[in-house]
């Protein structure tokens, strides 16, 4: 039971430091709330085009994926600070598993995402979202898989660049097309044919569609299969990348 | 405790489009016995930290082998990590976490139970004069306190071998002297073997039983501070003559007792009415020299005998003073971050 124990030690340390920082807690909670209240109402006039009975039925799953992706993309920034202060080096000189050093941090990111998801879904229900409970549970799990992938990739990128100044533009460059081509804010089906074809190449669009379909409780449809498959592939790739950087990271 | 043979670490360095392979460590042999305190001395960029990172399993050697605390650094890296404590230049406690929490978590990553790690950590806090700082954040500590906290973290699992990388860099003189005491205690009170890198001559001189000097990735000398000074340099004898007409005559006489291997007038430096040369065991040779000069009718204004410093040792071994070496390696250091990035691919 060494590996789970090591993951837990790393996780507990991360969580303790985060909880001691009130800004981290407040911003984490406010993010989903602001999106729901300040962007959700803009969708009300186009309910019919979205093909749903309530704007939040469309918006909450998309928001969930967005939090999963973008929240996790920033996870690596705190790692650079730790690296600079020699924390990563000090951890790497202990006999602890290198994978545990990464996974412990990922669990912290996933706990944060899970709490945000609970707030989002709870508020969504309160605002009139409809969805199947089983579907919502699966949708949240799918989101956490994607979030884990993005957090692992972000940590790997952090240890590769070791500089906020390099990492920030890289993340911005990745985030723009992901946000615009995933149909998170508005469905891609509203766009012209060529734009839809471009978005077919965006894995996160399939995942967004997958989570949305899952919320409706309809597990048998294509987007579910593609979305789940993409999430699993990304997770495995990112975990492999993250672990290998923790192994060879040259602090 | 440490046996290394032919350790090599190469980095790819890029300058514009030109790629060159830098041999940061170029065939290092090293033996450290149990209970020894060894100072690893060299200018910045000489390969000290890279060697240390190979010995602490953080960097896989490009060539060569090393056993540390009886285990192979490549094949048995986990056992090596269990046996050693490593205090890196950067430290190891996060500035915005509580000191005690960092220490306990670090101990637990070594497999200690939380309660044991806490007990052990608090003992170490007491021993290293950190009483009352258990819940303080490192960012609110002084430089000396932070370094001592780093050492606590390196000692939490009671290692028999401790690596210290530039332990006093950036500390003020008092904090430095205080840390020296604690480093000396590592062996005095705990019986630990200590391997420390430094680019301060006085630090290596003060703390270590034996000094290993590295330059351009190669070991250029390894001996006690006393022997290094006695064997390599000799003492500097500086004669100031009353009459500058006697200079040549005095130089010949001083030259006759100057260090073997550097005999003749070349070993003697003439500067105005000063005549200088390095003389082995000057304390014994000077009375004879004075009698010799007196019988030749040469009058001295003054005579000074300087014991050699490690800087003289470095100068004799490498042809550069340590200070010059620091200057010339500055440029090389600027490309180092790049080189390290590429080298990451070679690690396991």
From TrEMBL, chain A:
InterPro entries: ABC2_TM (IPR013525), ABC2_TM_bact-type (IPR047817), ABC_2_transport (IPR000412), Nod_factor_ABC_transporter (IPR051784). Keywords: Antibiotic resistance, Cell membrane, Membrane, Transmembrane, Transmembrane helix, Transport. Residues 23-249 form the ABC transmembrane type-2 domain. GO terms for cellular component: ATP-binding cassette (ABC) transporter complex. It is found in: Cell membrane; Membrane. One of its GO terms (molecular function) is ABC-type transporter activity. The keyword Cytoplasm does not apply. One of its GO terms (biological process) is response to antibiotic. The keyword Oxidoreductase does not apply. Its main location: membrane. It is a multi-pass membrane protein. The chain crosses the membrane at residues 21-38, 58-80, 110-130, 136-158, 170-190, 224-242. Belongs to the ABC-2 integral membrane protein family. This is Transport permease protein. It comes from Knoellia subterranea KCTC 19937.
UniProtKB/TrEMBL annotation, chain B:
The keyword ATP-binding applies. GO terms for molecular function: ATP binding; ATP hydrolysis activity. GO terms for biological process: daunorubicin transport; doxorubicin transport; response to antibiotic. GO terms for cellular component: plasma membrane. Its main location: membrane. Keywords: Antibiotic resistance, ATP-binding, Nucleotide-binding, Transport. PANTHER family: ABC TRANSPORTER ATP-BINDING PROTEIN, ABC TRANSPORTER ATP-BINDING PROTEIN NATA. This is ABC transporter. The lineage of its organism: Bacteria, Bacillati, Actinomycetota, Actinomycetes, Micrococcales.
């Amino acid at each position: 039971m060494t590996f789970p124990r090591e993951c837990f030690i790393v996780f507990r340390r991360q969580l303790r430091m985060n909880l001691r920082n009130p800004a981290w807690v407040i911003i984490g909670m406010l993010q989903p709330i602001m999106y729901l209240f300040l962007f959700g109402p803009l969708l009300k006039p186009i309910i019919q085009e979205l093909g749903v009975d309530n704007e939040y039925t469309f918006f909450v799953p998309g928001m969930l994926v967005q939090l999963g992706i973008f929240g996790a993309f920033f996870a690596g920034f705190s790692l650079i600070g730790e690296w600079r202060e020699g924390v990563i080096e000090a951890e790497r000189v202990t006999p602890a598993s290198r994978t545990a050093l990464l996974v412990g941090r990922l669990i912290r990111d996933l706990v944060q995402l899970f709490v945000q998801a609970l707030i989002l879904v709870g508020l969504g229900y309160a605002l009139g979202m409809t969805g199947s409970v089983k579907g919502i549970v699966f949708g949240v799990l799918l989101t956490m898989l994607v979030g884990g992938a993005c957090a692992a990739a972000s940590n790997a990128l952090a240890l590769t660049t070791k500089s906020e100044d390099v990492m920030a533009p890289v993340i911005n460059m990745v985030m723009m097309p992901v946000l615009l081509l995933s149909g998170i804010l508005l469905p891609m089906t509203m766009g012209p044919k060529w734009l839809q074809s471009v978005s077919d190449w965006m894995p996160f669009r399939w995942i967004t569609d997958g989570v949305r379909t899952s919320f409706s409780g309809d597990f048998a449809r294509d987007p579910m299969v593609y979305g789940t498959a993409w999430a699993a592939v990304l997770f495995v790739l990112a975990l492999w990348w993250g672990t290998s950087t923790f192994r060879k990271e040259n602090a | 405790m440490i046996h290394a043979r032919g350790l090599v670490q190469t980095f790819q360095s890029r300058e514009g489009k030109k790629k060159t392979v830098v041999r940061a460590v170029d065939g290092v042999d090293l033996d450290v016995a149990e209970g020894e305190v060894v100072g690893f001395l060299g200018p910045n960029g000489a390969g000290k930290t890279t060697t240390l990172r190979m010995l602490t399993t953080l960097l896989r050697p490009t060539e060569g082998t090393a056993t540390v605390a009886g285990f192979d650094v490549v094949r048995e890296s986990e056992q090596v990590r269990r046996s050693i404590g490593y205090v890196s230049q950067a430290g190891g406690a996060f500035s915005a976490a509580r000191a005690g929490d960092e220490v306990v978590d670090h101990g637990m990553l070594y497999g200690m139970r939380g309660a044991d790690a806490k007990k052990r950590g608090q003992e170490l806090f007491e021993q290293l004069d950190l009483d009352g700082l258990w819940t303080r954040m490192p960012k609110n500590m002084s430089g000396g306190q932070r370094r001592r906290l780093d050492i606590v973290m390196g000692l939490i699992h009671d290692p028999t071998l401790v690596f210290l990388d530039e332990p006093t860099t950036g500390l003020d003189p008092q904090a430095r002297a205080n840390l020296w005491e604690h480093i000396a205690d590592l062996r005095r009170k705990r019986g630990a073997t200590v391997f420390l890198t430094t680019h301060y001559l006085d630090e290596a001189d003060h703390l270590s039983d034996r000094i290993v000097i590295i330059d351009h990735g190669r070991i250029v000398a390894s001996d006690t501070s006393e022997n290094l000074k006695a064997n390599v340099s000799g003492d500097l004898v500086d004669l100031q003559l009353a009459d500058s007409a006697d200079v040549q005559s005095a130089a010949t006489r001083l030259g006759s007792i100057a260090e073997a291997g550097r005999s003749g007038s070349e070993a003697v430096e003439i500067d105005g009415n000063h005549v200088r040369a390095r003389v082995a065991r000057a304390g014994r040779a000077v009375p004879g020299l004075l009698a010799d000069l007196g019988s030749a009718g040469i009058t001295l204004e003054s005579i000074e005998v300087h014991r050699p410093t490690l800087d003289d040792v470095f100068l004799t071994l490498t042809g550069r003073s340590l200070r010059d070496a620091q200057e010339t390696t500055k440029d090389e250091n600027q490309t180092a971050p790049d080189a390290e990035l590429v080298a990451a691919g070679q690690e396991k």
